[in-house]
Amino acid sequence: MSQKIIGITCSNSPDPHETWDFCKIYVPSSYIEGINQTEALPFLIPIQEDLTLAESYVQKVDALLFTGGQDVHPMFYGQDPLPELQGFSQIRDRWEQTLLQVAIAQHKPILAICRGFQAINVFLGGTLYQDLSYFEHSNRPKVQHVQDNYQIIYPHHSLTIQKPSVLYDLLGQETSRVNSCHHQGIKDLAPGLKAIAWSSDGLIEAFQSSKEYPPILGVQWHPEMMIQHNDEMLPLFQWLADV
To answer: Which portions of this protein are annotated as coiled-coil regions (predicted)?
Structure first.
């Protein structure tokens, strides 16, 4: 059996020193390490302005990992930007929207993390809270969804997991604790996606796809960082390599 290849989406940012080029395209090494701990081979997919290249990239991989990063521009879900909107990249948004369309057409499995989780929801027709200060959490105590960066490898808040679900099958439990580093969240879940995990204040923390799509698992937290502490979240990466 040949080694599976996992395509990993990249981030982009200006070079603060402008030593060689204005823009850097990169991926944090923790995503690569997550794939390395399976038997699959990580393959970086750079951001491209030529959207026609998406089909060729997706054809070369067996599955895709949509990574974290900037906010998704709210124009992709029909809203104007609010003051709390943080950094964004419309070039990345358009590229990943196209990658998703091609991946669905080619029936390629997807694991989506943080921004990737939010982006897939948007690109399939859902919406976001541009900032969690707008999140209506009823009478439940509000959870702190942004923990200190130096603590990011450790679990931070509790999680309730739907049984049955892909996530329950992977973790084997109906509750867990996860790290948290996001100021936005899912407001309206896209058609064809099913919520399968929630924080204690009711925010959607994970979804899986319905049968109309290839296997898609999305999580709001950062399992690639948590596996630097222990291997509890490693099954998510193994799922992507095996599915």
So the answer is: none
212 is catalytic: no
CB 99 within 8 A of CB 57: yes
Q: Whose structure tokens read 């796809």?
A: 209
Task: Note the pTM of the prediction, 2 decimals.
Answer: 0.95
Domain around 122: 5-242
- Tell me, yes or no, if 114 is annotated catalytic: yes
Looking at the structure of the chain, the number of domains it has is 1
The pLDDT tens digits for 12-51 are 986 666 555 668 899 999 999 999 999 999 999 999 999 9
- Residue from 114, 156, 157, 181 carrying the catalytic annotation: 114
Q: Tokens 């709390």 map to which residue? A: 84
CA distance 16 to 229: 30
Q: Could you give the angle at the alpha carbon of 225 between the alpha carbons of 215 and 15, nearest 5°?
A: 100
CATH number of the domain within which 152 lies: 3.40.50.880
CB neighbourhood size of 12 (10 A): 16
